[in-house]
Amino acid sequence: MEKSSVIRMWITNKNNRKITAGMSESMVAFLSIAIENGCTGSTFAEDDGRVIVYTRWSDEMTLEKFRSSEDYKIQEANIMQSFTAAGFEIPDDILFNSTATILFSN
Second label for 28, Cα 20 to 30 Å away, from 34, 41, 76, 102? Predict the structure, then answer.
């Protein structure tokens, strides 16, 4: 059976809060370490009401290996701390958090 590429998405309500330097630094550090662990691409974005994070992986096994690593746990804790320090209420502000199989991409 052929391995399918996957994406991991995390979307969080901003509720009129701003992205801080600490949030940006922790997210960039996390996404950089994700690349070192097999992530093939990532995006950190915002619109008026949401923070959006997207990663792409060659297969779910690679993603799950990273998600169970010590690197992931450390970076996740830094992200949660930076969001909480900026007034975000985690997990209540999280709108969507999912892994999905890519059916088509170009």
Answer: 102
